[in-house]
Amino acid sequence: MTVSIRFSTVPESCKPLQLEIDSFWTLMRSSLNEIEGPSHCWLNKSAITKDLSGKDVVFLVVAGAFIEDSTFMLEKVKSLQQRYSSLNVIGFQHCRAFSSDVVRSRLAKIVMSEYITFPILVSNKSLSEISDRVGYILFKGMEGSLLLHEKDVEIEILETAIKDLLVQPLEQPGLLHTLRGTWVKPLDAFKQPYLCSPLQNLLLYFPGCIEVDEVNERLFLSDINHHRIIVFDGNGNILDCIGSSPGFEDGEFESSKIMRPAALFYHDSESCLYFVDSENHAIRRADMESRTVETLYPKPVGNKTQGGLLNWIINKLWSTKVVSSNSDEVDASLLFYPWHLHKSLENDLFILNRSFETLWIMDLLSGLIKEVVLGSAKILEMCGPLILEKTSLLKEIPSNNLPQNIVNKFSIEGNSCAGVVSSVATFQDNIIICDSDGQVVLKYNKKSKSMSSFNFSNFGVLGLPYWLVSPMESVYADGFGVSGVHVDHIQHFTLLPGRIDIKINVEIPEDTELEEPLNEGCIWRQTRGTATETLVAKNKAESTEKIGVAQQWYDELDDLASLTEKENSKEDTTSDTKLQDGKICIDCAVNTSPGTSEVIINAALYLRIQNKTNNSKMQQLTRLVSNSNPSSKDSFQTEACARILSTSNKTPEELVFLRPLHVRLKINSRDHPKAENSKDIILTESFVEVNVLLK
Q: What residues contact residue 462 under an 8 Å CB cut-off, 6+ apart?
């Protein structure tokens, strides 16, 4: 096998390294079909594995970056993933004690906090040159060229090397502000960290940054891995939610898309919330009065579409935006995974990355970057007082009350816990702290000297989370929904056409309890085929119309287009859910015409586990994770998520989790019965009751 090797520094001999590369390939290929073996385990590896034997397959192996703090290195890799969808990224970590709970918990936390979506191979087999190297290995196929780079290599060098290896014609890089632009993709195009996916069904998933509005007594929380900002009051009552799903799109709160929002700054006189959209490399602004989100940086241009239904459908199916771009090369002055945000006395925004190595100074009015400062020493000269003001709050709290992840955060130039500067704030007589490992928000009362967590309520404001349902267009396109979606109950009915009233009785798992009554905002109903949904409050005597599949498609699109207007309506709505005999009852009604149809009901049930046994904390957390993610059969995945939660000082019973409900009713409607004159049809009414047991 002939291999071309290029180093950032030329080695004395290439032969020993070539043998190790061969050994690495043997290890990786032999372990692909086993999640765990005697000398290895795969983390973050989904059930779907690409063919790795193709001669044109390009691989980027990230070696040794998962034990030490290599945030900036991993950010480079993620940006290349965004730009080149055909690039296969794999992590490799040598660890003698790879099966220990401590190591696995540490790696799982990195996957969660860095939002890593590629698989990581952990092995106790020592490949000295590779095992001891923290850097990148780039190669093409089994017999292609090999390139090794140290971890501090510039991203332009890596990108040039990737372009050289990609098959012709060269893949066009995705817009990353190039690195400049606004990129908007369908929901299915955004990958999630597979290893930590059960944590997605917790109420909060990596809550990392907090801001307060003392005047209006509001708090703003970046629920980072849920891609949303939650607005709540001092009692934990949820008031509003900014962001609907991962992506990059301006608009009203319910339709806007953001990607891992981080630090926030509330401008009282403007009634605007400025926030970092970290994975989009952008600064966004939420107008709290008009309830709209706009992008402050970068400025999108030319986002004009022709009118008409067809263009509206196309924009919904695959949204695009045209943005300004002066160069195809990466501009050092552009935002690259920003994280922290502060306002200076000169009406500028100070924007910093997580490692405090880069500071962008942005003019608040124009949204233009005025200056870029590199190096933590220079940054501390300018931002030291701001950082110290926030981190000094932690000194007022006894160390045994602080979350472990706060205590262990890095310090820069004597500023301890600098990494959590955006995770701490004061509100009234409390110090607010985000516990991103325990997935809770804590408050330390300075008068009573006590620590507690917020008990959130009013979950209906959050609506139905994006990951529980597929977009309506995808449902129609796939025929029977998206494959792999967990279904709790499927039932078939043969009924006469007409009005069908449906009552669904849901029994939650026996070791759980409902946190609050199911709100109508947590329920999503959809009909397909010859059925159309009817509001329960409507008059049952209204006429039943025959509706074809094509007409139903356009009717659903019209409903979707006016969804935001309906949600903002001030009219009172009557809840169609109630609690009877310990069961949750969901009511709905449909009109059907002859033919086949399907009714789909999704709901978000917010629960707590009950401790009715003498189980240990880890056993309870494992049960909690299993209850929240019924589709997962991966015991290692469940255990890894439970260990992340175990670092919190909170008991398992204090954690609120979401149990998704997915019910599908398939209806076959016969022909309309005829009246005595054999011309008129008889309108019928039916009633069905469905019992669902959640396990």
A: 228, 230, 238, 241, 521, 522, 604
Structure tokens at 186: 């369908």
**Inside any domain, residue 422:** no
436 vs 619: CA distance, rounded Å: 21
Residue 357 is part of a domain; what is its CATH number? 2.120.10.30
Structure tokens that stand for 528 in this block: 């397909």
DSSP class of residue 394 equals G
Cis omega before residue 169 (within 30°)? Answer: yes
- CA–CA gap between residue 401 and residue 396 (Å, rounded): 11
Radius of gyration of the chain (CA): 27
Task: Report the C-alpha gap between 449 and 285 in whole angstroms.
Answer: 36
Contacts of 139 (CB under 8 A, 6+ apart): 3, 21, 58, 59, 61, 145, 146, 147, 165
On whether both 242 and 364 belong to a single domain, the answer is yes
Rounded Cα distance between 88 and 75, Å, is 16
Pairing of strands 657-669, 577-580: unpaired
Find which of 65-69, 177-181, 186-190, 403-407 is predicted with most confidence, using mean pLDDT: 65-69
What's the Cα-to-Cα distance from 208 to each of 113, 325, 527, rounded to whole Å? Answer: 9, 31, 38
Which is it for strands 424-427 and 369-374: parallel, antiparallel or unpaired? Answer: unpaired
What is the greatest pairwise CA distance in the chain? 99
- Kindly state the tokens that stand for 244: 């609907």
Find the distance separating the first CA and the last CA of the chain, reported in whole Å: 54
Does the residue 74 lie in any domain? yes
Q: Is residue 162 part of a domain?
A: yes
Is it the case that residue 10 has pLDDT exceeding 80?
no
How would residue 376 be classed by pLDDT, with cut points 50, 70 and 90? confident
Q: Which residue has the higher pLDDT, 602 or 405?
A: 602
Assess whether 586 and 654 both reside in one domain.
yes
The pairing of strands 120-123 and 40-43 is antiparallel
More confident: 313 or 210: 210
440 or 147, which is more confident: 440
Is the domain of 290 the same as that of 153? no
Q: Which residue has the higher pLDDT, 170 or 410?
A: 410
Residues 689 and 628 grouped into a single domain: yes
- Domain match, 530 and 647 both: yes
Of 413, 431, 457, the residue at which a domain comes to its end is 457
pLDDT digits (tens, 9 = 90+) for 649-685: 788 988 999 999 999 999 999 887 877 776 777 778 9
If you average pLDDT over every residue of the chain, what do you get?
78
pLDDT surpasses 70 at 217: yes
Co-location of 452 and 498 in the same domain: no
Of the ranges 198-212, 398-412, 468-482, which one carries the lowest mean pLDDT score? 468-482
Q: Which domain holds residue 328?
A: 197-374+448-457
Residues 144 and 227 in one domain: no
Share of the chain above pLDDT 70, in %: 74
Number of domains in the chain: 3
- On whether both 301 and 169 belong to a single domain, the answer is no
Report which of 98, 80, 102 is spatially closest to residue 40, judged by C-alpha positions: 98
333, 360 in Cβ contact below 8 A?
yes
Strands 583-609 and 657-669: antiparallel
Single-letter amino acid, residue 348? D
Residue 348 lies in a domain: yes
Spatial CA neighbour of 350 closest among 324, 325, 384, 377: 384
* Residues 539-582 pLDDT 10s: 333 333 333 444 444 455 445 544 433 333 333 333 445 666 66
